[in-house]
Amino acid sequence: MNSAVEGLRANMERLGVGGIVQTGSRECERCGNQVPIMERRDREGNTHEESMCLNCQTDQTRSRFPKREDLKKEKAKGFSLKYEQVPEKLIGKTVSEYKAETESEKDMCMAVAELIRDFGETVHHSLVLKGPMGLGKSHLAYAAGAELRRQGYSTMFISSDDFLNLIKSTYNKETDLSERTIFDMIEEIDLLIFDEIGAEYINKKDNFETWASEKIYKVTDLRENKPTIFTTNYAAEDMEAKYGPVQGGRIISRMMAGAKRMVVEGRDRRTQDF
Question: What angle do CA 205, 208, 210 make, to 5 degrees?
């Protein structure tokens, strides 16, 4: 007796149906599998024909439950909303309100707008925005994440310094958040905005530089083939001086993989309010 017949008989017997025999088979109109036709006899002696496709029934049952990958995506959205760190001055900023003053600032703005418009389909899946402070790199990076979030994507804005503090918070025994969970979610998020790489505090007395560079490298490694916006004030030689020639080089290499590099020049808007 084949498994389909055994399964159908087992279901019928579980329901208290007796006198079961197979009288034929049919082709399922939905999946094309051969389905047994069973005949049962009730307590009054009446006969009834039953024929259900267990394959389709199983598929229908599974369809009622969310897929594992969907659950992970929803978890990533919840994580990003809970743990992202956005400076108050950036909240609500949009690409359209950014006022470019130099050609490189115009190029940066256009690159960010293109990333939003063609998300997931651009030639370069990531952006590296490099230049002095006060040019609006974080403004545009945040605005990209906010717009894509409105479109349903999971996005997260966090500076390298805040990220390291988040990692350190997992060393507190009272928290349920683990370092592994952080990195799992960082890898899963549709767009990560990793702001101000190189600007994080380094405590060399405690070898914090080595620890920090390892964590930052892991972020860049996990995001190597995933849409990411990196912002930094540092040139390559500055990163190598800070993180070491080997680790610094590895970080730069991962940041640049699949990324469009934008070197931005202009004036520091922040000084106008000094």
Answer: 115
In sequence order, the β-bridge partners of residue 195 are 159
In order, the DSSP letters of 96-161 are TT----SHHHHHHHHHHHHHHHTTTTSSSSEEEEE--TTSSHHHHHHHHHHHHHHTT--EEEEEHH
**Nearest residue to 227 (alpha-carbon basis) of 162, 151, 164, 131:** 151
Mean pLDDT (the chain, rounded) = 86
Beta strand segments in 15-125, E:
21-27, 34-41, 47-50
What is the mean predicted confidence (pLDDT) over 168-190?
93
pTM above 0.85, yes or no: no
126 in Cβ contact with 260 (< 8 Å): yes
Q: Which two tokens stand for residue 48?
A: 């009834």
List the one residue out of 57, 48, 43, 55 whose CA is nearest residue 23: 48
pLDDT band at 120, cuts 50/70/90? very high
Residues contacting residue 100 through CB under 8 Å, at least 6 positions apart: 106, 108, 109, 136
Hey, is 268 helix, strand or coil? coil
Which among 135, 148, 101, 126 is positioned nearest to 224, based on CA atoms? 126
pLDDT over 70 percentage in the chain: 84
Number of helical H runs and strand E runs in the chain: 10, 8
Instruction: With CA atoms as reference, report the closest residue to 146 among 82, 79, 191.
Output: 191
Cα(73)–Cα(56) distance, integer angstroms = 27
Whether the predicted pLDDT of 1 surpasses 50: no
What phi-psi label fits residue 155: left (phi over 0), alpha (psi between -120 and 50 degrees) or beta? Answer: beta
Q: Considering only CA atoms, which of 224, 113, 214, 104 is closest in space to residue 164?
A: 214
